Amino acid sequence: MFKFSVLTPYLPLLSSAVWVTIKFTIISTFLGFIGGFILALISISKNKLLVPLAKFYISVFRGTPLLVQLMLIYFATPQLTGYTISALEAGVLSFGLNSAAYISEALRGGILSVDKGQWEAAMSLGVPKHRFIMDIILPQAIKNVLPALINESIALLKDSSLVSVIGVADTLRWADLIQAKTFRAFEAFIVAAAVYYAMVMFLTFIGSYVEKKVRVSD
What is the rounded CA–CA span in Å between residue 11 and residue 7? Predict the structure, then answer.
């Protein structure tokens, strides 16, 4: 009935596909965090020019489907710039930009949740604002929103399967190609699902471990 043995010759390709998924998720998460951090700082600032732009950026990327953003960046970039962007580059860019919008809101909430007395104390002592934010506010904000950041990373890992639609050789793309060659759809996609599940569970375990360490340090 089930013939998982037919997948054996394609397991080396699966390892490569899994590595693409992991690499994609790590880079996209890193870009999303950096972008989200910058957007969060802009959002809490009093700059009358940058604040509306940041809010507009966040509303656009949170208010439109990720798949549409991916397709737009992949197909429109050559048309608008003349640069032939690769599928992996388009995926990393679109996911990084999208993730930045969500992470920025989480970080902004975390920053604003820090006791206002600490801000007032820092200003009265003449502590430079950038040092106060980096050394005191940001570490506390990250602790406060750590679960949200972990959930965003998990969502990014699962949503990374979308890049298969533009030809990125990730885990889902592997399953799609294997089922086309072997006509064994159940075996191919159940293996892909198991791989995604294993990666999500591992990321969840790491997140739980970090959360426990943070709580103990408090």
Answer: 7
Rounded-to-integer distance, Cα 52 and Cα 30, Å: 24
H-helix or E-strand spanning residue 147? helix 138-159
Residues 6+ apart with CB under 8 A from 50: 42
CATH number of 4-217: 1.10.3720.10
Helices (H) and strands (E) in the chain — how many of each?
Answer: 9, 0
The C-alpha atoms of residue 5 and residue 155 are separated, in whole angstroms, by 31
Cα 143 to Cα 146: distance, rounded to the nearest angstrom? 5
**How does pLDDT run along the chain (218 residues), one tens digit per residue?**
788 888 999 999 999 999 999 999 999 999 999 999 999 999 988 888 999 999 999 999 999 999 999 999 999 999 999 999 999 999 999 999 999 999 999 999 888 887 777 767 777 777 777 777 777 778 788 888 888 888 999 999 999 999 999 989 899 999 999 999 999 999 999 999 999 999 999 999 998 888 888 777 66
Separation between Cα atoms, residue 209 and residue 25, nearest integer Å: 20
| 93 Cβ contact partners less than 8 Å away, ≥ 6 residues apart | 31, 73, 85
Assign 1 to helix, strand or coil. coil
The b-or-e profile of 98-134 (16+ CB within 10 A means b, else e) is bbbbbbbbbbbebbeebeeeebeebeeeeeeeeebbe
